[in-house]
Structures are given as structure tokens and as C-alpha cells.
Amino acid sequence: MFEKQTNRKIKKSFSLFLASLFINLSSNQISFSAGTNDLQSGPMIGYSEMKEVLLWAQTNKPAKVKFVYWDQTNPNKKFNTKEIKTLERDSYTAKLIANQVYPGKKYNYELYIDGQKVDRPYPLEFQTPQLWQWRTDPPDFKVAMGSCTYVNEPEFDRPGKPYGGNYEIFTSIYNKHPDLMIWLGDNVYLREADWYSKTGIFHRYTHTRSLAEMQPLLASTINYAIIDDHDFGPNDSDRGFREKEDSLKAFDLFWGNPTYGSPEVFGAFTKFEWGDVEFFLLDDRTYRAPDKSKTGQRAILGDKQFQWLMDSLVSSQATFKLIVIGGQVLNPVTETFIEDFSLYPEEKAKLLDSIEKENIKGVIFISGDRHQSEVSVLNRKNNYPLYDFTFSPLTASPYDSSKEANTLRLPNTLYAERNFAVMSATGNKKERQLTFTLYDKDGKERWNKVLKASELK
Prior knowledge:
This protein has eight helices and 21 strands. It is an alpha+beta fold. The chain has two domains: 95 residues, Sandwich (Immunoglobulin-like), CATH 2.60.40.380; 316 residues, Purple Acid Phosphatase, chain A, domain 2 (4-Layer Sandwich), CATH 3.60.21.70. The strands form four sheets. Strands 3, 4, 5, 7, 8 and 9 form a six-stranded antiparallel β-sheet that branches. It is globular.
């Protein structure tokens, strides 16, 4: 009875929360602050491994933060994370580790600030990956994907029509109940007033993260992210950006990826596994040569990150290997405003040749950036085709590229409105497949594409 009453209360509170959002959606402004009392934004779930999960929150002043969590099947046995104090130098963000967890379990959790429980009008829950190896078929799971999140702030926005809008898309994503969310870059849009100071960069990250419509998704879905130009600095920013250390610091503070670069290589790249899919999250800014440069090393990844990627791909045992990067990889168009890998032909050729020579199976590219979604397909002689799925934008203004000469575009996949995608991994071990489904801002399906493991060998 208590459980049923509690569930009814949660559903009622969440319904009121969504109703409040709906009233304000048409304004294309933030509906209301995500914060309450000392909470500025969050909580958010970061990476999840079999023996630990990262939990994140942001306060609006120095405060002590901790989490309490429990297995949903044993609510009387509760565990505590450590308690830390948030600091101004870290934009009052807190990262805490839940390390009393086991594989394949679902947990509820609570957030405490200065010893007081912070109630949220939506479920707070997380899960750990299953220990399936040598035991069962790989688990079925769903991953939401999207890029280009622009949240309006009129004081600092360009004049005229608001560039961002339709924030209800995050409710649409939440309603698909994905296990994971991968933010495909341009997850914030640094403005002119933000570019050249730590204060400005931290302000922009805080402003975007405080969007009310985003909070339920952050609180119950495992979140990973890659960096692209607008998270990093000005439009089309590159390795020469003056404040790149502060940008990478903000990216680290506000996201919960398992690693940021490697001990040997500075940057924002990482990798993780879920089921029989491995995700390689790349940094296309820290080592990027200017798009228009004509001398010096012309690269996006740089030698060390490139070698890390190839080593990781060769070592991977995953059925599917998803290379996730901000800009498109396969699109052959070489206009600088497109910012795809074709602007860097030597490194692109090196990447595709290395994948072929190493005989790496199951490679799929995932990209964002373009303010429109599409699928590009490169058919290779005596080898499986390579696919590049581009998903964009979430809340930034869309762009129609139908007149571009992307000769690799799969027919009927171009969609030039706000959207997101869900990738579903299904099937037994011998018949695994990925289904990519594109949805509009309201959660209505626009197209889907199935890739079978047997087709990528």
C-alpha cells in the first residue's frame, strides 16, 4: 500500500511538473529555474559501471552534498556516498561515486544538501550494466542521441528571432525511457560574452544545465557527452583557442564521463561499453587545425588521439563499434561551413584505410553538428558499407541542406527540423542488430534504419 501511494504521489508531482513546463513552452524561454533552495541544477547520472556509478549535482553557493541510494528490491538497506563541499572555483559542482552497487541492478537515490533532503517532482533512479559475458545473450538496451542544445538568454543572444526553442523535446526523449543518453556535441552554445573568461564559460554551462525541461532526463538516464566547437569556444574553434583549458575544465566539471583524455594525452576523449556495443567518444577540437589552414599539420584528431582510437578499435571485442564525433566523417562535401572530415583529406584517408587494413568489423560513425539529420553510406569494394548517422539539432535552429552535394546521403533520411534519435540494440548473440529511429520534437517517428551485425562483417 505504501509503495502504491508513493508511486501515485510521484506520478502526481511529475504530472504537475510537466503541466508547469507546458504552460511556458511557447515563449521559447527557460520555463523556470531548475533549482530549488540551494540546488542550481541536477541531479544527473554520469557514467555507470558494474561496481560504481557517478552522481552529479550543482549548488548555487558553497554547500555540503551527498547522495543516499538503495537497491529497488531492498529499500530498507541504504548506502551513502561520501559528502563533499562544493566550491566556487568548480562552479559549485559535485561529483560523487556510488560504490556499493552490483551489476544488473536498479537503484533509487536521494540528494542531500547541507544535511537536508532535496525533493524532486520526478523519479531519481539509476542502473548498472549487466554481467552478461559467458552467461547470457547480450542485453537489449536503448540509447538516446542528439546534438546542438541552444538555450536562449536574450541579454547575450543575437538580435532577432530566438535561435533556441522547443525545449519540450527533452520531455519527449524522457518519455522514450532510454537507458543512456549521448550528447553529441554543441551541448551548450558559448556566446561572445562567454568566450574569453572562465567566468563566462562557467556561466554558460550553468545557464544551459539549469533548463527545467532537461532535469527529469538527467536524473534517471545515464549521460555521456562529447565536445564540439560551441562547447569549446567560438564557432569553428580549433587548437589555437586561447581559453581551451578553461573550456575543457568546464566540460569535465559539468559532465560525468569516465575519463577525459588519457594519462599520456590531454583532451576530452573516452570510451565505454554497454552490452555488446562499445562507444568511442572523440575530441574534435583540442588538436584540430584551423579549417582554412594551408600549412602545418592538417588534422582533427592529432597523432596521439588517432593512435589511441586505432589501438582501442583493434582491441575491442564488441559486436558494434560506434565512433562518436562532432562533425560528419563520410560526407564528401568540402565547403568550410560544413566542417566535416573531408576538409582534412589526409587524416580522413588514414582513418578509413586503417579501419580496412586492421579488418575491424562492426564500425559505425555517429555525428552531430549539422542542424539537420541524415544518414551517409560509403559502399566499399569487397568490404561491408560504412554508415554515418548524423543527429541534429535538439533545440538550436535547424538548417535544410537538401541542396548540398552529399552524394552518400541515404534517400529519405534528411530531416531539417528539431529532432532526436534512439538506438535500440536487440536480438540474441548470433542475431544482434541495431535499430536507429529518428523522432521529431514531439516524439513522433520520422524514419528508422536497421543494421544487422551480419551485415557489418
